[in-house]
Amino acid sequence: MAAPLSKSPLFSAFRSSSSSSLPHISRRNYHVELAAREKALLEEDPALKKFRSYKKGVKLTSKIGTVLTGVAVAACSYQLVVKAMT
């Protein structure tokens, strides 16, 4: 039976070299402060406020499309069941 890959010398050498390169920095807690450009991009843009109603219209249209798709699928399924029974 073959030995597991995790116990192979090649894998252990790779694991030891990657973990010893940055022992003091944890991947989970590493955080870099945002620069001025990123902060400016995340701020709300007053020029785009007039397009808020557009977003609401898109959401409403999407919901209507989803409902109509469901109705069409239900109608087709009903027609198939009716044809199968007759």
TrEMBL record:
<feature type="transmembrane region" description="Helical">
    <location>
        <begin position="60"/>
        <end position="81"/>
    </location>
</feature>
<protein>
    <submittedName>
        <fullName>Succinate dehydrogenase subunit</fullName>
    </submittedName>
</protein>
<dbReference type="GO" id="GO:0045273">
    <property type="term" value="C:respiratory chain complex II (succinate dehydrogenase)"/>
</dbReference>
<keyword id="KW-0812">Transmembrane</keyword>
<dbReference type="InterPro" id="IPR034573">
    <property type="entry name" value="SDH7"/>
</dbReference>
<keyword id="KW-1133">Transmembrane helix</keyword>
<keyword id="KW-0472">Membrane</keyword>
<feature type="region of interest" description="Disordered">
    <location>
        <begin position="1"/>
        <end position="22"/>
    </location>
</feature>
